[in-house]
Amino acid sequence: MDWIAELASETFQTTGRMTVVVQDNGSIHKSHLTRQQWQRWQAQGLFLFFLPPYCSEMNRIEEQWHQLKTHEIA
Q1: Which end of the chain is more exposed for a tag (fewer CB within 10 A), N or C?
Q2: Residue 72, SS3?
Q3: Mind giving me the DSSP string for 21-65?
Protein backbone atom coordinates (compact mmCIF):
# COMPACT_ATOMS: atom_id res chain seq x y z
CA MET A 1 0.00 0.00 0.00
CA ASP A 2 2.97 2.31 0.51
CA TRP A 3 3.66 2.46 -3.22
CA ILE A 4 0.02 3.39 -3.85
CA ALA A 5 0.35 6.08 -1.18
CA GLU A 6 3.41 7.44 -3.00
CA LEU A 7 1.46 7.66 -6.25
CA ALA A 8 -1.47 9.20 -4.39
CA SER A 9 0.88 11.78 -2.90
CA GLU A 10 2.11 12.81 -6.35
CA THR A 11 -1.46 13.05 -7.62
CA PHE A 12 -2.56 15.02 -4.57
CA GLN A 13 0.32 17.48 -4.92
CA THR A 14 -0.21 18.09 -8.62
CA THR A 15 -4.01 18.03 -8.85
CA GLY A 16 -5.30 18.35 -5.29
CA ARG A 17 -7.34 15.19 -5.76
CA MET A 18 -7.32 12.32 -3.29
CA THR A 19 -6.97 8.71 -4.35
CA VAL A 20 -9.65 6.34 -3.04
CA VAL A 21 -9.04 2.61 -2.62
CA VAL A 22 -12.10 0.44 -1.99
CA GLN A 23 -11.48 -2.59 0.21
CA ASP A 24 -13.48 -5.33 1.81
CA ASN A 25 -13.29 -6.01 5.52
CA GLY A 26 -10.61 -8.67 5.27
CA SER A 27 -8.48 -9.05 8.37
CA ILE A 28 -5.34 -7.96 6.54
CA HIS A 29 -7.02 -4.71 5.47
CA LYS A 30 -7.85 -3.82 9.06
CA SER A 31 -4.90 -5.31 10.89
CA HIS A 32 -3.19 -3.38 13.68
CA LEU A 33 -0.15 -2.73 11.49
CA THR A 34 -2.32 -1.42 8.66
CA ARG A 35 -4.41 0.81 10.94
CA GLN A 36 -1.20 2.44 12.16
CA GLN A 37 -0.57 3.66 8.61
CA TRP A 38 -4.03 5.10 7.85
CA GLN A 39 -3.33 8.64 9.06
CA ARG A 40 -0.01 8.79 7.20
CA TRP A 41 -1.65 7.55 4.01
CA GLN A 42 -4.47 10.08 4.33
CA ALA A 43 -1.90 12.86 4.72
CA GLN A 44 -0.40 11.63 1.44
CA GLY A 45 -3.78 11.85 -0.28
CA LEU A 46 -4.80 8.19 -0.06
CA PHE A 47 -8.23 7.47 1.40
CA LEU A 48 -9.39 3.94 2.21
CA PHE A 49 -13.08 3.21 1.79
CA PHE A 50 -14.40 -0.02 3.27
CA LEU A 51 -17.40 -1.88 1.90
CA PRO A 52 -20.11 -2.68 4.42
CA PRO A 53 -19.58 -6.02 6.17
CA TYR A 54 -21.34 -9.01 4.61
CA CYS A 55 -22.07 -7.15 1.41
CA SER A 56 -20.62 -9.53 -1.17
CA GLU A 57 -22.72 -8.11 -4.03
CA MET A 58 -20.70 -4.87 -3.80
CA ASN A 59 -17.36 -6.68 -3.87
CA ARG A 60 -16.51 -7.39 -7.52
CA ILE A 61 -13.98 -10.09 -6.71
CA GLU A 62 -16.77 -12.17 -5.21
CA GLU A 63 -18.23 -12.61 -8.72
CA GLN A 64 -14.92 -14.08 -9.85
CA TRP A 65 -14.70 -16.35 -6.81
CA HIS A 66 -18.21 -17.61 -7.52
CA GLN A 67 -17.32 -18.44 -11.14
CA LEU A 68 -14.12 -20.15 -10.06
CA LYS A 69 -15.79 -22.23 -7.39
CA THR A 70 -18.82 -23.14 -9.51
CA HIS A 71 -17.24 -23.84 -12.89
CA GLU A 72 -13.52 -24.37 -12.53
CA ILE A 73 -13.02 -26.16 -9.24
CA ALA A 74 -16.24 -28.17 -9.20
Answers
A1: C
A2: helix
A3: EEE---TTTT-HHHHHHHHHHHHTTEEEEEPPTT-GGG-HHHHHH
